[in-house]
Write a structure and sequence with these properties.
single chain, about 325 residues, mainly beta, eight-stranded antiparallel β-sheet, seven-stranded mixed β-sheet, about 0% helix, about 45% strand, disordered N terminus
Length: about 325
């Protein structure tokens, strides 16, 4: 086992993964700014969903078999108590193998690890409780083509690493996405679409850099203001269908409200927020968390196990922490 390596939250480099099924297929990972989840960009315009969960099975020093809710296609991270477990490859036996939704370890986990953070992040075949999907639109990416077609209606598009919303960088009608002539993709274009769980709405109100009141139909889980993630009490307040933005940071370009369309919600974890405490308890298993305007997910910024969120010491909350479940 190797120790977890810290991830530089300021890094903008792309992440890639290798399929644990054929040990050859390379997939590109994109961080979704709306939900904070990693999205797998697979070839041929198909889409996959990333799941993060605690495998089911006894940690008793003898059991070696664990199961997850969905069929595993690629294991991205798998570890217990801060230690990384390595998947077998086509030519080398390491710590575990996978088949369907079953994980088989070659060495039992010590019983002393029971109750410690135990998380697997993987791409899988199944229906997520909360999530989004990613699609590669059809069309030439050559720095001049502006017209692309999609199967799914996009929540937003990612064009050469920049997030664009409908009306801000592109327009969408039917199945056609028309990119702003000033911003044709030169490297890639991807669309992010709702896959149950969460979606967003555009609050009603004038965006002019001074207006702070916006009305919504659905109670927000959180709000994105000009690219900054805000939660109720930190960046805005919400009551009676009205979002009131902090007057020091009214939207200049756009505002979007992210809300639940499934059984999920937002929870304030129990624990002291003082810039040093790293352990917080929750009632509901988090899909991801928000720490001081930054979206984090299990294995990248925190670990989760047995009702406890353990935040990376490098990103301990100073103002607030919220769990999205």
């Amino acid at each position: 086992m190797d120790s977890w390596q810290k991830i530089d939250q300021n890094s903008r480099g792309s992440l890639t993964a290798v399929s644990s099924i054929d040990f050859e297929t390379i997939v590109r990972l994109v961080a979704d700014p709306i939900t904070g989840r990693l999205l797998v960009d697979s070839s041929g315009g198909s889409s996959l969903t990333i799941f993060s969960e605690t495998p089911s099975g006894a940690i008793d020093g003898s059991n070696v078999t664990y199961t997850v809710l969905n069929t595993i296609t690629t294991v991205l991270t798998f570890g217990i108590n801060g230690q990384l477990l390595q998947p077998d490859t086509a030519t080398q036996t390491n710590d575990f193998s996978t088949s369907g939704n079953t994980i088989t370890l070659h060495t039992p986990l010590d019983a002393s690890l029971s109750g410690r953070p135990f998380t697997i992040v993987y791409t899988g075949v199944g229906t997520p409780v909360t999530g989004v999907g990613i699609e590669t639109p059809s069309g030439n990416v050559d720095g001049s083509n502006l017209t692309f077609t999609t199967v799914n209606t996009p929540l937003y598009a990612i064009i050469d690493n920049y997030v664009r919303f409908n009306g801000f960088g592109y327009t969408f009608s039917g199945t056609t996405l028309s990119v702003d002539p000033l911003d044709p993709p030169t490297s890639y274009i991807r669309t992010v679409y709702s896959n149950i769980g969460t979606t967003f709405e555009t609050p009603t109100g004038v965006v002019n850099g001074s207006n702070t009141s916006f009305s919504v139909v659905n109670a927000p889980l959180y709000v994105i203001i000009d690219g900054i993630t805000a939660v109720s009490g930190f960046g805005y307040t919400f009551t009676g269908g009205v979002i009131t933005v902090n007057p020091l940071a009214p939207p200049v370009e756009y505002i979007r409200s992210v809300y639940s369309v499934g059984s999920g919600g937002v929870e304030t974890p129990t624990g002291t927020v003082n810039g040093s405490n790293t352990n917080f308890t929750v009632v509901n298993t988090p899909q991801y968390i928000i720490v001081d305007e930054v979206i984090l997910f299990s294995g990248f910024g925190y670990t989760y196990g047995g009702g406890t969120i353990s935040v990376d010491p490098l990103v301990t909350p100073q103002n607030f922490i919220r769990s999205i479940y």
